[in-house]
Amino acid sequence: MAQIFTASADTRLRAAALLGVVALVMALVVLGGYADSSYATLVGWVEHQPVPFSHQHHVGELGIDCRYCHAAAETGAHAGLPSTFTCMTCHSQVWTGAPMLAPVRASLASGKPLEWQRVARLPDYVYFDHSIHLSRGVPCVTCHGRVDRMPLMSRAQPFQMQWCLDCHRNPAPHLRPPAEITRMDWSNWDEEPGIHAVYGELMTKVYGIEPAKLTQCNICHR
Amino acid sequence: MTADRQRERWERAAAGRPEGVDRRTLLKAMAASLALAGLSGCGAQADEKALPYVREPEGFADGAVRWYATAALFEGYAQPVLGKTVSGRPIKLEGNPDHPVCGGATDAFTQAALLGLYDPARSQAPRREGRPVAWSLFERFADDLAVRLDQEKGRGLRLLTGPLSSPTMLAQIAAMMRRWPQARWHVSDPAGPAEWRRASRQLFGRVLDRQPAFDAAEVVVSFDGDFLGPGPRQTPNARKFAEARRRRQAGKGFWRPSRCRRRPALRPTGGWWQAPGGSAVC
Hints:
- The structure holds two protein chains of two kinds.
- In chain A, about 50% of the residues lie in helices and about 0% in strands.
- Chain A is an all-alpha fold.
- Chain A has three domains: about 10-40; about 55-65 and about 70-80 and about 120-220, no CATH class; about 80-115, no CATH class.
- In chain A, helix 5 (about 85-90) packs across helix 6 (about 100-110).
- The radius of gyration of chain A is 25 Å and the shape is extended.
- By secondary structure, chain B is α/β, with parallel strands linked by helices.
- Among the domains of chain B are: about 65-120, N-terminal domain of TfIIb (Single Sheet); about 215-280, no CATH class.
- Chain B has helices at about 5-15, 25-40, 110, 135-150, 165-180, 195-205, 235-250, and strands spanning about 50, 65-75, 75-85, 90-95, 125-130, 130, 160, 185, 220-225, 255-260, 275.
- In chain B, strand 9, helix 7 and strand 10 form a beta-alpha-beta unit.
- The radius of gyration of chain B is 27 Å and the shape is extended.
- The model of chain B is unreliable at about 275-280 (pLDDT under 50).
- Classes of the chains: A mainly alpha, B alpha/beta.
- Chains A and B meet through helix 5 and strand 1 of A and strand 1 of B.
- Strand 1 of chain A pairs antiparallel with strand 1 (about 50) of chain B.
- Chain A: Keywords: Membrane, Transmembrane, Transmembrane helix.
- Chain A: This is Ferredoxin.
């Protein structure tokens, strides 16, 4: 009976298997890199908005408090975006004719809402309550970044599960006095570890925060 | 929808499976769809728009729960309910505990009435011959129609409604019938108590509603009537019935509901007498 396989068949099989393994590893590396890249997480990417609203100008230069516009931040499940009426409380007096603000005036006149592109958002399968994070003293800057340095709004953190868990596993170092949550610059707090080192530890006890419970699946996936 | 298009659609549906697609191709297409659906989990999030209010309601907090006292119709009768809303979206109906009729209870139909708001077939605009049109077009149509009907005393106008009990709407319809006496009003109420209406007209000379006071009765005899069964008064009926039974259990008053029945229905145990032989006697 003749040979079914040639002498080189074994070599070719080994080469193919090796190639397959290499391709699999490469695919995993590429997928992993993509998932962590800013292209997928949208960190630092600016969305096209109907009005080029500058947080840098309103927060950094004018010093308007976050809660003036995001009024439900401390009470609602979502911080919410300001109504057209809120914009017009000031812009009916200042910059009344600015072409940049034409969509806002059109929205007030027609009664049709402005259509903003959402920047900070979570997938639908995540339960998130904005108010509880603020009432326990997680400052705005922790998740939203230095918005006072953003001429156009972009995502500051990847909003991945890993990132959420980093804080839920050990919330103490992230806690600040709830009265000052809208403060953007906490460098002097971080520079004085002696004074503030115990604050987070104490407040987790005061609030009854148990990290073991915060990492249970159904805390966020209900 | 015009008759032509309706027939066309029916013929298409009656023809069944389109030509040239065999079982194998169909399964292949299904498998491909399934595999591609899995891929959608890998992509980045699609852009999502946020539409804030133009003028925000007082005390609005995004994502917070708000309750409104309102009414849901069941066979034309308003059922007192509290509507639970999140961000302006109604998500649950509960009985209004402050309303004397229901005392916080609802029936399954009122609970399910919420789904009607999210019915994809729910019309978002007025329709003319099956096609959605603008309200302004309807207004012009109605104006023209009113002029013609005034001349002809309403001849040819037919109004079709569901069962109604709203005094305002009944008064409006009555005013319309006075203005156009030759118009006709039809009520579509396939599951309504048509027999009871006929009976009450025979008995009392006019159409009356039943409002059984089970809590004041000592003996209730029902002949093949499912008086605790589904209907717009099922919530107050059940409530009064339960109240009377509680009184009897507490030793106050004589309370003996009896029923002759042919078909099985909801039947609380205890204190019941059933006619022997069922249908034969009743």
